[in-house]
């Protein structure tokens, strides 16, 4: 009987994990299934482009995994029972229970509303492709007239505000953040950021946390009303509550608690990668939710799975976070090195940084969308428990 591996989520971490495992595990011994609600691989870190009407390359999962042996299950995950080793899914017309021997949890994250009233009812966001398309439709319906309020001061907020401003120059763009915009950046990078906001005519409200979102704007904690024809909520991400309800050990924020090899500390056979995992990086800090973190945690999780199931030593992947790469429209960007005293760190700005980021994203996307590249001629089979104990080297 084949060992059943189920990968939940076809984002950067999940798509990479399924493809990598297919390249290195014997099809006679392993059956790999990837579960995703949408039929396409979505470049999540380009969703601000989708929201402004730009068209991204179509990447169907069926085409990505053709010839790999990976089965694509188009369904939405509704629950995970880690004790029974089952996953509940639905495609809108039917529900099903999928059984697994090994689970890769890579469902990622969604928008965090922080309990602010009105966010779910009145605000738009860009944490998923359907949400980005809804915002696109709203911006098109505005016809170049009106005000867009962007709530948040992180990378998504900055990228969203500048992308909307560049593609809709006749709209008034306002950004409200609870802290200082770009306060974590070094002097050079922050100067460039503020100059860019000034060039686009984006109004900035710093130290203005939002207490409530209404249909026609939002109220700050200080009682000020910021009128808007569309409010875009980009105030951070949150892990889907499925993880916490699954029986897996999780952190206070719902991220899955794992060891250094991305194994669940509470349930053997469950591995996590991407935004849903809580792990400490090489700098002693938790890895942030990011494309880079998805890559490193996905690499470590798959290395651990292959080692644990085939009796081989588990390779150690460095868990590092090098810097912030922030697009400011299509022709401008900032690359800020992080770590240590950021005030002493240099930054790459402008067209060079924009081209560099575009190259990184294209390379990352190509890698996950071409899982058969470099397909090895010899794949590893499932080891017996005795073989695993004899051959595996503790991490």
UniProtKB/TrEMBL annotation:
Domain called FAD/NAD(P)-binding: residue spans: 4-294
Keywords: FAD, Flavoprotein, Oxidoreductase
Gene Ontology BP annotations: aerobic electron transport chain
Keyword Hydrolase among UniProt keywords: no
UniProt cofactor(s): FAD
Keyword flag Electron transport: no
Annotated InterPro entries: FAD/NAD-bd_sf, FAD/NAD-binding_dom, NADH-Q_oxidoreductase
GO molecular function, one term: NAD(P)H dehydrogenase (quinone) activity
Similarity-based family: Belongs to the NADH dehydrogenase family.
PANTHER family referenced in this protein's UniProt entry, alphabetically: 64 KDA MITOCHONDRIAL NADH DEHYDROGENASE (EUROFUNG), APOPTOSIS-INDUCING FACTOR 1
Protein name as it appears in the record: FAD-dependent oxidoreductase
Taxonomic source organism: Glycomyces lechevalierae
